[in-house]
Amino acid sequence: MKKSVEILGLPIISITEGRELGMSKTLLIDAKNGTVAAITIEDEDWYRGVKLIPYESVIAIGDDAVTVTNSENILTLDDAGDYEQLLDDNIRIIGTKAITKSGSIQGKISELYIGDDGKIEKCEITAPDGTTSDVTADQISIFGKQVTVIDPNGEKKNEPVAAPAPAAAAPAKETPAPEAPAKEAVAAKEPAAPKAEVKPDLPKAAAEKPAAKPAPAPAAPKAPEKPAAPAPKPAPKADPKQAAADKATEERHRRFLLGKKATRTIKMDNGIVIVEEGQDITEEVLQKAKLANKFIELSMNVQ
């Protein structure tokens, strides 16, 4: 059994490739089943987005490293469809209020104890007076985003209470995604505008020159010269499929970041603050980060 603090910050080692794959960053909690579903990692390609290792792919968690079979065990956000809902839920447990069914606040969850199979065996509660106590998994009814509901009397876990969890697991955030390709398709057609280039004026100029021939001016023969500037070519059309894929990826990252908190202050190049450390990530913050080209930096500094 390991504390969460004994897992986070450890290097991830591939035992078949003999190399370090990154550093463990956070625990992805499956609140409904009371387990750790995966470990998110940070590596040298952090700017490409979130990566994680399913807990079942972990061979062992030692004092100095987390071992896995190879780098193929690492999933990107695009490959982690089964974990997308858990990323959206963003249940942390540590820091939540521990409250009994009768409505008495016992303190805050300050630590997790995790078994070899990823099951959360018990939680440590720190009371307002600084004293600590443990509650086992059987004494916990619900792991929530802000509150963990417990039964300090040691009664068996109340399974029916967990029924509301699926309702929270069905947000209607998926609907914006289909609209993205339509918008991109319209944008892709816009480069056709250069076809409206007014080219017929040049022949007119040439047609008017014959009227000047009766004039004895010696400069008249130079007028029929063809213009050297060719008509501008239409800009190449964007690939609608690629644009749609990029938009879908951006939408997944946006949903992943919403509701999280910044772990440090992010600023624009001119010094204007996008988000303060500890502030919630909102749509406004995401828009500022995107306009300032700080989206990737923001995504790697949230919790």
From TrEMBL:
Organism classification: Bacteria, Bacillati, Bacillota, Negativicutes, Selenomonadales
Biased composition (Basic and acidic residues): 196-211
Cross-referenced Pfam families: PRC
Biased composition (Pro residues): 213-237
Residue ranges that the Swiss-Prot or TrEMBL entry lists as coiled coil: none
Superkingdom of the source species: Bacteria
UniProt-recorded name of the protein: Photosystem reaction center subunit H
InterPro entries (UniProt xref): PRC-brl_dom, PRC_barrel-like_sf
Residue ranges, compositional bias (Low complexity): 160-177, 183-195
Region annotation Disordered: where it falls in the sequence: 151-258
Domain PRC-barrel: 5-72
